Amino acid sequence: xxxxxxxxxxxxxxxxxxxxxxxxxxxxxxxxxxxxxxxxxxxxxxxxxxxxxxxxxxxxxxxxxxxxxxxxxxxxxxxxxxxxxxxxxxxxxxxxxxxxxx
Length: 102
Known about the structure:
Blueprint: E1 10-16, E2 21-25, E3 28-39, E4 43-44, E5 52-53, E6 56-64, H1 65-74, E7 80-85, E8 91-93, E9 99-101
Antiparallel strand pairs: 1-3, 1-7, 2-3, 3-6, 4-5, 8-9
């Protein structure tokens, strides 16, 4: 499969680690937010004893529209999940005047 320049596709396979929070406006559900724990491939901790260390990344996720509603209806904390989407970052100025990256 060929990808165009600048293509932004992310595939996550992990477990939902937080309660799913609905994003609502005017009584309508627009989407949801939750955290997914993704376990990395084990890496050797020490070459002498060969013990492996398991590391997990915790990735904040937001789902909009019908996908968000489906996640709210079908998933809960500690549920395995596979997600395909886009990675997007942002920033804002916090109350203390410092830039906060999301």
